[in-house]
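Ticket #145: bound-state structure for zinc ion.
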Amino acid sequence: MKYFTIKELTKSATAQRKGINNDPSREVCKSLTALIEKVLDPLREAYGKPIIVTSGYRCERLNRAVGGAASSQHVKGEAADIRSVQDTPEENKKLYDLIVKLGLPFDQLINEYGYDWVHVSFGPRHRRQKMKAVKKNGRTSYVRV
Ligand SMILES: [Zn+2]
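RESOLUTION: The complex was predicted; output attached.
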């Protein structure tokens, strides 16, 4: 691991505020390490600028606290939500496009609400799914792209 740490992918303001222990198990650490080494580090290297991880691992309690889907790969340490330092849709889209262009071995890649952030996962299923999350009448739906 060159650019990212396990700590960076497990820290959570919500967990701190609510007193939730979000320490990863050994299994989760293995998944986070794979996510960093296969996807996040190569992306960061090619991008050449810092990338902010807004959410990585979420234990079940934390996942419920933030309203995450029960089946979320965040719970397994297989997913990260990332954004650029600028945090503009244009710059966040660059991260998404770069993941595709570099051929990084993602499982799911999601453009969240018009590149508000990018969700990327790495896991054994290797589904290579590209999706976008859109909100209709206040409800989120995921559309394959
Ligand atoms: Zn996510």
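RESOLUTION NOTES: The two ends are 31 Å apart (CA to CA).
TICKET STATUS: resolved
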